[in-house]
Amino acid sequence: xxxxxxxxxxxxxxxxxxxxxxxxxxxxxxxxxxxxxxxxxxxxxxxxxxxxxxxxxxxxxxxxxxxxxxxxxxxxxxxxxxxxxxxxxxxxxxxxxxxxxxxxxxxxxxxxxxxxxxxxxxxxxxxxxxxxxxxxxxxxxxxxxxxxxxxxxxxxxxxxxxxxxxxxxxxxxxxxxxxxxxxxxxxxxxxxxxxxxxxxxxxxxxxxxxxxxxxxxxxxxxxxxxxxxxxxxxxxxxxxxxxxxxxxxxxxxxxxxxxxxxxxxxxxxxxxxxx
Length: 275
Fold this sequence. Notes:
It is a single chain. By secondary structure, the protein is mainly alpha-helical. It contains 8 helices and no strands. It has helices spanning 2-23, 61-67, 70-110, 117-123, 129-143, 154-173, 177-209, 214-274. α5 (129-143) packs antiparallel against α6 and α5 runs parallel beside α8. It starts with a helix and ends with a helix. Residues 18-34 have low confidence and may be disordered.
């Protein structure tokens, strides 16, 4: 009986403790676990000043000459010679064309207004094309008095002499144009030969190395492309210069032929007046 009373007393004590816990205020309750602190943000170190490296171009003309073989160097020398020759001819023939054009204007203003043929010849510059034509025509009129030319009409004889002098002037103007035409038509193929040779070296480097890595093929391929560019740079000025000079020579020769025709008429008139 005493054991039953002790059980009842323990049960009552447990119920009282539970009811007291439920009735307690919120501030008296056990606090919830505090939130975990936020991780500290570590500031990244400030970036230092960026230093620029100057990388030397390994595929310019200097390295092309240093790394190229005999064929590549020979091709480059040929292109340089062709370029120098074309520019020399272009500059000199253009200067000569402007010079003859100036002499044509001077001849129109001074020669045909002179008192005599000899005085007119003196107004023309020595070594010029128009003085050469005038002296040739005057000499032809003097030579017609010989026995060998006596059976040839004076008009025909003087006309032939003037025509030959004009053709010599035209031939002088056309000197060098064949070189420009040759350079303009062959320089791209010379550059293409350098391109093919560079690609062949690239393929050889790949075969020796056993792999197509960029460091094995970049140099030869760069040389080949540079050769193509040089060939075009040589050919384009030669072609443009050739067409320009042909056009200018055509205009210049019109002035020369006009002067020759007028001179022929003056000589025939002087011959008739002398009879």
